[in-house]
Amino acid sequence: MDRSRLHDTVLAGVVAVASVALFVLYGPERLQAEGLPVHGMRPPDALGGLLVVLACAPIVVRRRWPLSALWAGLVPETLLSSLGYGTGTSSLSGMVLLYSVAAHRGLAISLVALVVSLVAYLTGAAAGPVGPVAWNQYVIVAVVLVAVWGAGRSLRLRRAYMEELKDRAARLERAHAADTRAARAEERSRIARELHDVVAHHVSVMTVQAAAARRVLATDPELAREALSAVEHTGRLAMTEMRNIVGVLRTDAQAELGPQPAVRDLPALVELMREAGLPVRLQVEGAEVALPAGVDLAAYRTVQEALTNSLRHAGAGAKATVTVRYEPGELDVRVEDDGVGDGVGAAAGEPRSEGHGLVGIRERVTLYGGILNIGPLPGGGFEVRARFPLKDGQ
């Protein structure tokens, strides 16, 4: 037996004892002594007591079958009135059962239960042996029945309100968890792009430098040694950046362990590309302004990916120009080369296309409301140009 059933069983016993006590104490002799006419009211006996107990018994199942329990309780009450025992002796059980219906069933069913209870009680009062002289008492009992029904409805509405609050809290928690997972997925996607940029750039530089060292190894060992040193230096840089990025994945942090590269770091990038064999010229036009961190990083990555693309595909003897122009309300970043696509790292005549790196750059630029143009130049060569809007005077 569960705890609620045990509680209802105890409640049924208490109500039965109280109802039997009222049935015995307020018999015809007691009512006559108080000056109330009895009009042939039957004295308490075993049959009447049994009916009172039967009227209280359905309280045991009042939570599981509240409406059926109410109907079962009304039958002994009706018999008590029709057999002349008077009304009101089992009204306690009727109140409990009516309260249970109102608290555990919907509005329509509870209204039907209220109406049936009132009709049954008032009919018994009108036909009972005590007669109309005690109508004031019956009216009071009817008002109490309505109040009990209202208390049950109030409890049901409060329970429904609390359930709604719990459900809303659960939905908010699920939504928060989904937002957290989405934010983590977005962050990891961004980190994946960062990792691709780092690996693609540094590995491309190392490949070109290693190829150059292989070609001059027999004829110019000193130049080959310098190229291999450059490969070592680039490899160390790549390992450092990848270690920082992977560290974010391991700790699930939202920020990198070290400062992000920015436009101010372009001179070092240009120098690294020169050492790799791609002559690069850097031009900065306009008055420099403080850039938002996201735009700053996106501009740097755009130049890095474009120069890597030029190093791999522009061909031998190609030169590149990086132009950073600060304009009112806009940052214009342009990378141009004069290559033909037939050098080291590209097959002869192979057209350059928008690979994974440039696709990632396009996503970066679009994320910050910018416009990216990628394609060959009319007079030969290739261009990557990104324009970022700057707000609030930036």
TrEMBL record:
It is an enzyme of class 2 (transferase). GO terms for molecular function: kinase activity. It comes from the Bacteria. Pfam families: DUF7134, HATPase_c, HisKA_3. CDD domains: HATPase_UhpB-NarQ-NarX-like. It catalyses: ATP + protein L-histidine = ADP + protein N-phospho-L-histidine. The keyword Nucleotide-binding applies. Keywords: ATP-binding, Kinase, Membrane, Nucleotide-binding, Phosphoprotein, Transferase, Transmembrane, Transmembrane helix, Two-component regulatory system. Residues 294-392 form the Histidine kinase/HSP90-like ATPase domain. The chain crosses the membrane at residues 6-26, 46-63, 83-101, 108-127, 133-152. InterPro entries: DUF7134 (IPR055558), HATPase_C_sf (IPR036890), HATPase_dom (IPR003594), Sensor_HK_TwoCompSys (IPR050482), Sig_transdc_His_kin_sub3_dim/P (IPR011712). Its EC number is 2.7.13.3. SUPFAM superfamilies: ATPase domain of HSP90 chaperone/DNA topoisomerase II/histidine kinase. PANTHER family: NITRATE/NITRITE SENSOR PROTEIN NARX-RELATED (PTHR24421), NITRATE_NITRITE SENSOR PROTEIN NARQ (PTHR24421:SF10). This is histidine kinase. It comes from Nonomuraea salmonea. The lineage of its organism: Bacteria, Bacillati, Actinomycetota, Actinomycetes, Streptosporangiales.
